[in-house]
Design brief:
Layout: H1 3-16, H2 21-32, H3 37-69, H4 72-80, H5 84-106, H6 120-133, H7 138-146, H8 152-166, H9 168-178, H10 182-225
Helix pairs in contact: 1-7, 1-8, 2-3, 2-9, 2-10, 3-6, 3-8, 3-9, 5-10, 9-10
Amino acid sequence: MQLGGFLAAMIPLGLGGFDIAPALIAAVFLANRAVGSRRHVLIFGATLLGGTVLWGLLLATALHPMLKQINWHQLLQTVLHAGWCTVALKLVLILTCIGYGIYALNRSTPEDGTRTSRGLTSLLLIAAGFIAIVTTDPPFLAAIVLSADQPLWAVALALCLWTLISQLPLAVLCGAILMRQDARFTRWLTAVWQKTGPLFRRWLAISAICVGLVLALDLTTSALWGRDVWDLPIYP
């Protein structure tokens, strides 16, 4: 992949990994603490943003030799046509997607994910948790895979771009703190999330159910006709 295309790919991948939770946690922390909270949030933001980039660089550097040798097309075909293993994988994905969607739609009182403990130590532990969780984020893993044939400086630049996009609310909050505009920004961010949060959770739940239904249709066509739904002819 050309360098320009590689960097451009980080934009949709960053949007795919977009996460407002760290910014909301920092906003609640700012609202609950009057002494030293700005400095603590800046440390939290620097740790999470910088740690994500460094962790990505470490993974990319360690996995580059292996990633270059993988034939991704052949691997995908093997996974999609592995007999009962493919069926079992699709069943797990179907149950997971539909189960999560139904659970999320029926949950009347969503858990508050913005509560924070008291102190800088808890913020750093939260940052470490988010850095660890990003390893399971498909857009992040896709960025690592795409970096296989890129020089190290390009990988670092791409990971910085991915991190800034995926953690844009937190990055803006840190910038607002430096400009002493954090109170205004946190009020705006909290108000926006209170209005859009329920809609976003419902959209996510419905999307998960739709993905599960599409996988179920694909599994059904494979069982009835021996072909994936993607391979069926549109016209007779």
